[in-house]
Design a protein that fits this description.
The protein contains six helices and nine strands; from the N terminus they run αββααβαββαββββα. It has helices spanning 3-8, 59-69, 74-79, 133-162, 202-213, 265-289; strands at residues 28-29, 36-40, 85-88, 165-173, 191-194, 219-221, 241-249, 254-255, 260-261. α5 (202-213) runs antiparallel to α6. The chain binds zinc ion.
């Protein structure tokens, strides 16, 4: 029996409620001085009422698109049981996607109508009416810019405290590829580790892979998704701002048809914490030593 089968059959999984913590106003959860920041961009399924008239598909189709595109419960999965600081985007990525570049010219997904402001669905159907320039700028000013400002401020704060920080870019992905995805391979890993060639040192990638594999997870690097977010001010300019994306295959913790948690949710949440703790300790030790860790 593999370790993964072990945890799927673990009787502990029958009650995951004890490990759960509901995050209420959780756009910014700042806790103790861990050098880790959890960036959680896609957990919300909320569409503010003032934005609902922008969408031109039926309420049922919109609900279905949100089911497909939301990284359900990743706020709880990564931050619900954690002492690390978290920056959580408060509305659905369907409205504004904070993971995309602000400028469509820099963003590859804008070709698919899924740049910072989506115009098309995951199956390439038009979902939104044409926005005015003013409407577009308002969306960026009200949602995108404050989110990135919070993240940048937290990076600066952590950096001031310990001269380095680690952004964990927290996501989940469907077990079967959606039509918009570049990688249509069906042999999807359990965990996808995303890296940035400037901000992700090799030791960090190796540690992420080693730790998840120690729990029996099939882990892949930059497949089916690649990259890891760093806010603009530090992007490609400060190599002591580290970043690592962790994408969890939704089949591990979710009933993907209903978007409800599966019985495995609590255990997967625990494992994520067990993976982050050694990363944090290693980073803290190196902060104290002030050593070069590339
Ligand atoms: Zn995501």
């Amino acid at each position: 029996m593999t370790k993964q089968e072990d945890f799927i059959n673990d009787p502990f999984l029958q009650d995951s409620s004890s490990a759960e913590k509901i995050l209420t106003d959780a756009s910014l959860v700042c806790t103790y001085d861990s050098p880790i920041i959890l960036h959680i961009p896609h957990s919300s399924a909320f569409i503010p009422s003032e934005l609902q008239d922008q969408f031109i598909i039926s309420p049922g189709d919109l609900e279905e698109e949100i089911r497909l595109m939301t990284d359900h419960y990743t706020d709880e999965l990564f931050a619900g049981n954690s002492k690390d600081s978290a920056v959580i985007f408060p509305i659905s990525r369907i409205c504004v996607d904070p993971e995309r570049f602000r400028d469509d010219a820099q963003e590859a997904m804008s070709e698919k109508g899924m740049g910072v402001i989506y115009t098309h669905s995951s199956s390439s159907c038009a979902i939104r009416r044409a926005l005015t320039v003013t409407e577009r700028l308002r969306l960026l000013a009200e949602y995108y810019d404050p989110h990135h400002a919070r993240l940048e401020a937290l990076v600066s704060e952590k950096f001031k405290a310990s001269s380095r920080c680690l952004i964990i870019d927290c996501h989940s992905f469907p077990s079967k590829p959606l039509p918009y995805e570049f990688d249509q391979s069906t042999d999807r890993p359990d965990i996808c580790i995303g890296t940035d060639e400037f901000h992700t040192p090799k030791w960090l990638t190796d540690e992420g892979v080693r730790l998840f594999e120690s729990y029996g997870f099939i882990t892949a690097v930059n497949r089916p998704f690649s990259g890891s977010l760093v806010p603009g001010r530090h992007y490609r300019s400060n190599q002591n701002v580290f970043s690592l994306m962790i994408e969890v295959n939704r089949k591990l913790y979710l009933n993907e048809d209903t978007a409800l948690k599966s019985v495995s949710f609590g255990r997967v949440q625990e494992i994520i914490q067990e993976v982050l703790e050694p990363m944090q300790k290693r980073l803290e030790a190196q902060c104290i030593q002030g050593s070069q860790i590339f």
